[in-house]
Amino acid sequence: MTEDDVQAAYSARAAEYAELLDSIDHAAAPDINLITEWARGISGPVCDVGCGAGQWTQLLTELARCVRPGGRLALGFFTNTTLEPFDHAVTTAWFWPVDQLQRRVEEAGFTVTHSETRTDPGARPHGAILATR
């Protein structure tokens, strides 16, 4: 699937996503707490980058170039013990082992300051990584 295909697939469902996820009400309390604490230390602009179909991992190095020294990164992702694709409502998504994604973040020039995982009832396993440049 090309980048244009992914963009078209998400565009086709944009209204549905906006209706379902256009408010903080859908977020789990641990996610709200994590992002609230992370954001307390931010004094400059914030860039909210969607994960799409997982291709964003290839852009970490480019992202690191755009984040000023001391800048912060917060990643949320689906986690598992192996890197593997799974069917998503729009296009193929990926489960990432925390250690593999953390290594990618560090290789891109960030220092990981926090990582966590959890599985909420009825939901896919979720991970989060916080890092600084």
Task: Describe the protein in words.
The chain is of the alpha+beta class. It has one domain (3-132): Rossmann fold (3-Layer(aba) Sandwich). The protein is 35% helix and 23% strand. The protein has five helices and five strands. The chain has a five-stranded mixed beta sheet with strand order 2-3-1-5-4, covered by helices on one side. A hairpin with a 7-residue loop joins β4 (111-118) and β5 (126-132). The termini are far apart. Residues 51-57 have low confidence and may be disordered.
Outline of the structure:
By secondary structure, this protein is an alpha+beta fold. The protein contains five helices and five strands, in the order ααααβββαββ.
Using brief descriptors, characterize the structure shown.
133 residues, alpha+beta, Rossmann fold, 5 strands
| Number of individual domains | 1
CATH fold naming: Rossmann fold
Radius of gyration using CA atoms only: 15 Å
The backbone outline, from C-alpha atoms, is globular
| CATH class membership | Alpha Beta
Order of neighbouring strands in the sheet with most strands:
2-3-1-5-4
Strand content: 15-25%
- By CATH's scheme, which homologous superfamily applies? Vaccinia Virus protein VP39
- The total of beta strands comes to 5
Q: How many DSSP H or I helices?
A: 5
The biggest sheet, with number of strands, parallel, antiparallel or mixed sense and barrel status, is: 5 strands, mixed
Helix percentage range: 25-40%
The topology string of helices and strands comes to HHHHEEEHEE
